[in-house]
Amino acid sequence: MPEQIAAPIPADPLPAPTLLKRAVRLGRKFQNPVETEIGGFGMIFKLLPLYLSNREERTPKRQLGPFVTAADTYARPPASGLRVTWFGHSIMLVEIDGVRVLIDPVWDERASPMSWAGPKRFFPSPLPLEKMPELDVILFSHDHYDHMGKETVRALAALPAAAGAQWVVPLEVGAVLRSFGAPAEKIIELDWTESAEMRSARTGASLRITAIPSRHFSGRSMRNRFETLWASYALKGAEHNVYYGADSGYWDGYTEIGQHYGPFDLTMLEVGAWNVNWESIHMGPDGAMRAFRAMGAHGLLMPIHWGLFDLALHAWRFPIERITELADADGIPLWSPPPGVPTEFEKGVELRSSWWR
Asked: What is the per-residue pLDDT across 51-65, written as a single tens digit (0 to 9) for each?
């Protein structure tokens, strides 16, 4: 299992003034890094007519897949040092320079507090949890249902492949994991700009994980919004540097993220679940392209947060169609593997799968 650390370690000193700071809490509620308006219960009355009149293909008309992960692939380390298996949405297994990181796992049938209602998966997970390879880190960006599956956490906590894994989360998310059965002694919480240095006993490789501010919110009900922190992450190994943007609206901090934590070989940015009514917390394809450019447009852009759940008003294909259109217009290389395929990353080599067409 990875070496355990007693406490988070500070990231490298940041220049002042900076938008990249430790999280601020007013009372019990964490604050966004910039002023952000979040719609309350009243937003339902504004959105309901839009949902009722919507005619977009928000869920696929035909069954997608089947997608099947060749689990024996994990017996061989990635030749390039970086391999990613994208399971749809923002769920992925990242093998980076000898360290395996499972990110925002949701194997649950629905991204919902209810097992009988709410956004349902477009397709089953390509890899059953019981076939998961040995994990070094299980990483969560925040506690929303489409990023943290309750039943998934329970299953992982009992899974031999996760027995030695460190669970890395933003501040106060540890209590949520513990309530789901995750081992308390293996949970480490990070504030923004704090890092955790992980070392895999499997390989001896090390990875620095740094929590970085994002513009979003948290909570698994309307009653506990903002009481747990949310974050994006930089994953820096011996040879590769990856940015996992998680959920975020566009904000001016992206320039500083690129300057201080980059350049990144692979930048994962959300493109789905966008709507003008909540663009301050979900940036969509246009915001993702703007953010990628603000970060320096280094390496390859990986579109995430799409292709698995119906969470907005747009057609399910819209996010990938729009980001592809923007990439073609701007000459930006995309890296978008098909679901469930352990895919080797090669620096500067674009990848565009067409599974969604």
From this structure: 778 889 999 999 999
